Amino acid sequence: MKTMDRLKDITSQLKVLYVEDEDLFRMTVGGKLRGHFKEIIFAENGLEGLKKYFENDIDLLITDNLMPVMNGLEMIQEIRKKDTKTPIILVTGFIDTDFLIKSINLGVTQFVAKPINFDNLFNAIEIATQRVILENLERKTRQQEIELFKYREKYHSLQQERAFRKELNIIKNDLFMRKISIRNENSGDSQWFCSYIFKPLDIMSGDSYSIRRLGDDRYLFFLIDAMGKGLSASVTTMLSTSYINHITSEMIKDGNFTLQDCIESYQRFIKPELIDEEIVCLSLVYLDFRLSRMVYANFSMPPIMLQKINGEVEILKSNNLPLMKVDIPLRIQDIDISDVSKIMLYSDGLNECYSTKGELYNDYIRADFKSCCSAKDLFDKFRRVMTNPNDDITIVFLKKKPASKIFSKTMTILSKIKEITLLSEQVKEVLSAFMKSDDTILFMSAFSEIILNSYEHGHIELPTSKKRELIANDTYDDYLRECEKTCKSCIEVTIEVFDEVEDYLICACIKDSGCGFDVDSMQRVEKNNAAFSGRGIKIAESILDGIYYNQKGNEATLIKKIKKGG
């Protein structure tokens, strides 16, 4: 389905304000937008736009920057004093690091470069408005809420949503936005990046997962898919995930984790709770990255996929029947992963999905796994051919930092805005040798957000609430300058480029000497949609293939795959 067609579903009930001083742009863009929104309101400068914004219930703002009377950023700054949530798309032909930092700090959701590419504009609108529907519900009148829940069976839906929030809370992900750094005197240092996708089809999900850190470089990966529909499957899933987390925590506390003991304890717990003929499919994988060892038991889940360093893909098929009330023998296998560069676990909602053309994604999955660098990258490939998933989808994806390095440069600066600006220009120059101009601009917008995050959290420890207050009062820059007077801390940036046959893998590592960013706060935001923070990191995530922090939270690695020659 094309972006413009998808937009009608998302934006048909939204009111958009388009601020542009040039008549030709206003007419051209207005014509393209017409038919996709409930209403389009036009303004010719920032002052007129500000007036119309507060006179109307605006759901999306699209604005130029360079305009007479009041420019776009000045208008946005006034709007953000009273409204921090409405998505804003900034259309501009001028982007540098200072401009990006200020724009992101003011809560600009998406950027579109001039001259306008309408595919880029509609993609930006789609990203910016996906969340606005749900957020609007909170701002609408009580009567509108009653009308909505009348058709959704208000009471039952609320109960299901609460149960789903509980289900999300039960999930434990000790590798959320994390990387695994292994120090090994014999084989050399290495890193693994862990990413995931969790996409329930309905409010209540039969899928779940957990990722538990057992100790230094040792992890347990758990995926479950309870067979059945609705509440029954979801209850089994929640019981199972909760118990696996419980028994794992107890074993960690006692210092005696073994995969076999974990599975046997779970079997004793869950079998009495299963109803007749109910079956449970699950994968449990123990990974010791230091010893390059993988121990697994797969109970009728899709095969575990491995890619070797030489590019060969290995399929580890299920080695156990699904769990049932009856006793079945347990089989656990132990393999060496010293020559493995990627590992993927997933539920059958991925490989058993049919496209509108009747194609099975299982026909694509091997090639897509081989060419992708993260769970997000794989899921993007999936969505290009599979528009309507018919089951819950869970993916856990592990990628080892490649050895095929063709470029590396490390730069160290004092933690000051002026030096960050100069460093960003150096990074941009480095990247331009491997990326197209548009890709470089996008990457730099993500880079600017994360390095500013490192600056704020790593050195001056600026809370989000304080930052918003400073921006609203237009004292943010003054506050930073005052903090910088006593700052002797440094930020180190390393840019690495890896040759991945058809692609370049760009890695930008940003490291500070501060106390570290609370990465788990982003996981709390993800589990609670009512929370509204981490906007900049979310924007950066939408641009990149992955952002991965170390355990302390003072080192972030930005990953982006770039097609060679394109």
Report on the architecture of this protein.
This protein has 566 residues and is α+β, with helices and mostly antiparallel strands. It folds into 3 domains: 3-139, 3-Layer(aba) Sandwich (Rossmann fold); 169-400, PPM-type phosphatase domain (Phosphatase 2c, domain 1, 4-Layer Sandwich), CATH 3.60.40; 405-563, Heat Shock Protein 90, CATH 3.30.565.10. It contains 20 helices and 21 strands. Strands 6-7-16-15-12-13 form a 6-stranded antiparallel β-sheet. The chain has a 5-stranded parallel β-sheet with strand order 2-1-3-4-5. Strand 10 (280-288) and strand 11 form a beta hairpin. Helix 1 (3-11) runs parallel beside helix 6 (118-129). The longest helix has 25 residues, at 230-254. It is globular and about 75 Å long.
Which descriptors would you attach to this protein?
566 residues; alpha+beta; Rossmann fold; Phosphatase 2c, domain 1; Heat Shock Protein 90; six-stranded antiparallel sheet
In short:
With 566 residues, this protein is α+β, with helices and mostly antiparallel strands. The chain has 20 helices and 21 strands.
What class, by secondary structure content?
A: alpha+beta
Q: Which architecture of the largest domain per CATH?
A: 4-Layer Sandwich
Total helical segments: 20
- Please state the overall shape, judged from the principal axes of the Cα atoms: globular
CATH class of the largest domain: Alpha Beta
The radius of gyration is 25 Å
Poorly predicted runs are: none
Total domains, how many?
A: 3
Strand order of the largest sheet: 6-7-16-15-12-13
Q: Could you give a short account of the major beta sheet?
A: 6 strands, antiparallel
| Average of pLDDT | 85
Helix content: 40-55%
